[in-house]
Amino acid sequence: MTIEFRDYRPLALAQMNREHEEFANLLNEAEQALLMGRAGLPYLRRVYDHCLQHFAQEERDMEYLRFPALAAHRHEHQRILQLFTDALAGYERSGDMTGVLEFLMDTIPDWFGQHMNNYDRALSQFLVQQDQKRAH
Ligand SMILES: [Fe+2]
Ligand SMILES: [Fe+2]
Questions:
Q1: Got the DSSP string for 37-92?
Q2: Cα-to-centroid distance, 8 and ligand 2 (Å)
Q3: In this structure, which ligand is nearest to the CA of 119?
Q4: Which ligand has an atom closest to residue 115 CA?
Q5: Is the pTM of this model over 0.85?
Q6: Cα(95) to centroid(ligand 1), Å
Q7: How does pLDDT run across 96-136, given as a tens digit for each residue?
Q8: What long-range pairs does 70-78 form, CB within 8 A, spacing at least 24?
Q9: 123: nearest Cα among 63, 83, 81
Q10: Taking a C-beta distance cutoff of 8 angstroms, is the pair 17, 11 a contact?
Q11: Sign of the dihedral defined by the CA atoms of residues 19, 12, 82, 107, in that order
Q12: How far apart are CA 62 and CA 73, in angstroms?
């Protein structure tokens, strides 16, 4: 299994945890499909689309609340999306799953662990603080 979501320390925001868990599930499904020789593209596209939507939501929140680390956080989203696009294009072009499997099993889990623990953790704490401020 690529990502065991329970191994990650939860963030302050339940909604963000739910989306990350869904991401982990989609990633694991894609990996299983590829390893079992099923057509992997629909699964991979589902992971990609989830990332697009999830990143866009985080970026909207950051823009709306003028989150100080917006630029760096967005850059990290764009960086992994570019690697994802390249891995998908390589797989579509050649039918060879080596690159895309490496991406799923190594690149994305490493990125996710780092990203969640740093960027998303800081953002979720900020969002919770903003919520508390508004409540007072
Ligand atoms: Fe993020
Ligand atoms: Fe996230």
A1: TS--HHHHHHHHHHHHHHHHHHHHHHHHTT-TTHHHHHHHHHHHHHHHHHHHHHHH
A2: 13
A3: 1
A4: 1
A5: yes
A6: 30
A7: 999 999 999 999 999 999 999 999 999 999 999 998 888 87
A8: 72/119, 73/119, 73/123, 76/111, 76/115, 76/119, 77/51
A9: 63
A10: yes
A11: negative
A12: 9
Q: Which domains occur in the chain, in start order?
A: 14-130 (1.20.120)
Residue 1: pLDDT band with limits 50, 70, 90: low
Torsion angles phi and psi, residue 40, rounded to 5 = -90, -20
Tell me, in angstroms, the distance from the centre of ligand 1 to residue 122's CA: 10
Ligand 2 centre to CA of 116 (Å) is 6
107 CA → ligand 1 middle, Å: 16
pLDDT tens across 5-30, in order?
888 899 999 999 999 999 999 999 99
Distance 94 CA to ligand 2 centre (A): 31
What is the distance in A from the centroid of ligand 1 to the CA of 97?
A: 27
Place of tokens 């508390």: 132
What are the tokens at 116? 């969640």
